[in-house]
Amino acid sequence: MATYPPQGLSYTDPLLTASRFLANPLFVARRIQELADLRYVGNLLLSGRQETTGGAVGYETVEGIFADAAPEVVSPGAEYTMTTISDGPAGLARVVKSGKDTLVTDEAIKRRNMDPVEKGLRKLVNSQGKAIDGSVISLIASAVTASAAAGTAWATSTTILRDILKAKAAIQANGLGYEPNVLLVDDNAWALLASDPTIAAAMAREDKSNPVYSGRFSILAGLEVIPTSTANLPGAVGTKAWVLDTNQLGFIATEDLGGGYQQATDLVQSKVMRVDENDAWRLRARANFAPVVTDPLAGYAITGI
After folding, report:
1. pLDDT tens by residue, 8-29
2. Who's near 89: CB < 8 A, 6+ residues apart?
3. Contact by Cβ (8 Å): 63, 86
4. How far is residue 291's CA from residue 133's CA, in Å, rounded to a whole number?
5. pLDDT at 173 over 90
6. Do the beta carbons of residue 225 and residue 218 sit within 8 Å?
7. Strand runs labelled E in the chain
8. What's the rounded Cα separation, in Å, for the pair 189 and 23?
9. Count of domains for the chain
10. Is 237 exposed, middle or buried (CB count within 10 Å of its CB: 0-12, 13-18, 19+)?
11. For residue 9, is it within any domain?
12. What's the CA gap between 106 and 274, in Å, rounded?
């Protein structure tokens, strides 16, 4: 039965041809956003954002949260004394553009409709997401130098929660107002966390959000557990986990270069171009950004996990 008013086409509608899909840049940008949301985490770890121009961004590293002099007693009628507010050491980060193109031919569209388009977009998103994650996570790994070894390797440990809480306490002990909110681990470490019998015994047994039922393990000790592929973490399986205050750790600077691109995700832009001389559509995904860590003390590495 026909419905009124008629609903608009979506990219999943069988009536939507690949050519019509590609002719609408907003469809392409929306699909890239949905694909990118599935896995990549680099944009979550440095939550601050800053627009820049000129290809670089200046910043100051951690300078503390207190004035240079302590408050003094002020007698009645007396003036308040002045204090300086020191800036932290200055730094400069260069914005780098990266991206890839791929062609989807008219022949492929005619014979397979949306399949070659989906495959092309998925591979572009995966490549760009991996590049962003690698850039952000490697920067964090090199900037965050505070660390302590796990009591025992997590595969056999009964004190995983203690290792995490000690790392969280070490960040807070800096007295700089940091509040850790993220635990970054690789997939293997996530599996050890989710299946650890000591942690499981402390969880609500009849809660359907329990990882035994849901396959998800999102919060531990007030920290959002973010797993990522081992390829994005330096060192390989069983080396490090990071406890982070992502709100103060740093930021990502972006520069808008124009050119008719659609903002597909927080960092990724997309563009679709018709290439008549090749009887094809050219798909492009790019990112133009600079990750910056301003507060390395807002992170702590647990080694030897």
Report:
1. 444 454 445 777 777 777 777 7
2. 60, 61, 63
3. yes
4. 10
5. yes
6. yes
7. 48-51, 56-60, 90-94, 96-105, 147-149, 182-186, 219-220, 223-228, 240-244, 250-254, 262-263, 268-275, 280-293, 299-303
8. 43
9. 1
10. exposed
11. no
12. 10
Where helices occur in the chain by DSSP H, the ranges are 18-22, 25-36, 42-45, 106-112, 115-143, 160-172, 187-195, 197-202, 211-214
Residue 138 identity: S
Q: Is residue 157 pLDDT above 70, yes or no?
A: yes
Within a domain: 115: yes
Residue type for position 92 = L
pLDDT in tens, 49-69: 999 988 899 888 876 667 788
Q: Which one-letter DSSP state was computed for residue 256?
A: -
- CA 115: distance to chain centroid? 28
Indicate whether 77 belongs to any domain.
no
Mean pLDDT of the chain: 83
> Which of 184, 190, 92, 89 minimizes the C-alpha distance to 138?
184
**Domain around 54:** 18-63+89-303
| Contact yes or no for 62/88 (Cβ under 8 A) | yes
Question: In this structure, what CATH number is given to the domain that contains residue 132?
Answer: 3.90.1690.10
Mean pLDDT of 78-98: 88
Q: Using one digit for the tens of pLDDT, what is the confidence trace for 268-298? A: 888 888 999 999 999 999 999 999 999 999 9
Contacts of 74 (CB under 8 A, 6+ apart): 80
Q: Which of 283, 233, 240, 234 has the alpha carbon at shortest distance from 261?
A: 283
Among 174, 220, 226, residue whose Cα is nearest residue 198: 220
Q: Is residue 146 part of a domain?
A: yes
Is-contact 168 244, C-beta < 8 A? Answer: no
Answering whether pTM is above 0.85, one says no
Nearest to 257 by CA among 31, 96, 132, 28: 96
